[in-house]
Amino acid sequence: xxxxxxxxxxxxxxxxxxxxxxxxxxxxxxxxxxxxxxxxxxxxxxxxxxxxxxxxxxxxxxxxxxxxxxxxxxxxxxxxxxxxxxxxxxxxxxxxxxxxxxxxxxxxxxxxxxxxxxxxxxxxxxxxxxxxxxxxxxxxxxxxxxxxxxxxxxxxxxxxxxxxxxxxxxxxxxxxxxxxxxxxxxxxxxxxxxxxxxxxxxxxxxxxxxxxxxxxxxxxxxxxxxxxxxxxxxxxxxxxxxxxxxxxxxxxxxxxxxxxxxxxxxxxxxxxxxxxxxxx
Length: 280
Ligand SMILES: Nc1ncnc2c1ncn2[C@@H]1O[C@H](COP(=O)(O)OP(=O)(O)OP(=O)(O)O)[C@@H](O)[C@H]1O
Prior knowledge:
By secondary structure, the protein is of the alpha/beta class. The protein has a single domain (3-263), classed as 3-Layer(aba) Sandwich (Rossmann fold). It is built from ten helices and ten strands. Strand 6 (151-155), helix 6 (163-178) and strand 7 form a beta-alpha-beta unit. The longest helix is centred in the middle third of the chain and has 16 residues, at 163-178. The chain is globular and about 50 Å long. The chain starts with a strand and ends in a 17-residue tail after the last helix. The structure holds adenosine-5'-triphosphate (ATP). Adenosine-5'-triphosphate binds at residues 14, 17, 19, 37, 39-45, 275.
């Protein structure tokens, strides 16, 4: 089976902090996949290693069967990326940023069409820095979609958005999924994850402690909701009163929260690369 994304035994340390500690997962074509975990669990580092902007210490990653480090050019024609901290020039306008992004690709989508679809047609001449948080997030989705990607990576896309703006973004993501796009997202909002994700992986201290569907996560223990399941897996130290989930017989893959708590962040040799992130 060809996967949109395959990650195997990925390891990445920053000095003495093992941010990603043997992470493996696959994402099927057309799937919406959520990478979940508390602050510092290793989500962004995993995505960055996967996308080839950070060099992993060990392990491998492939997107659409391509190596993100050696087939970078070909890969970024087919992949869209939105990071938490998108960088752009001071004073640049929405139109200018879209045109500059479009110029990087041979077969790009029409930015004006995308801006209109995302309700940004009226702010094209405005400076990006003058946009509201919701407008800016939608612009970042537009930028990620300009290359007409087959796979799109969205890192905490709806953080900071009001309820209406979040719902608008969800609607757009559902449309993208219906068109067959593979979506890999990180999020701290479990309602969003329930709404959007076909499957999730929960990271704790750099390791995957659960992977499966949302119903499988809820059914993996005495949980009334995804949020309860998530907290037991992702915040095991705070879930002293929570009951450990049972290993599901047929679905989902679980490392118990108590195991995850014991994993900690073992010290490792300093990574030669440290904290340097390469640009895309
Ligand atoms: N450039 C860096 N230099 C040193 N340590 C880093 C760097 N980036 C991340 N870390 C550390 O690596 C660990 C994982 O961080 P990462 O940003 O991948 O987590 P995250 O799950 O994306 O968190 P958040 O939800 O807060 O974005 C944390 O302990 C973090 O402090």
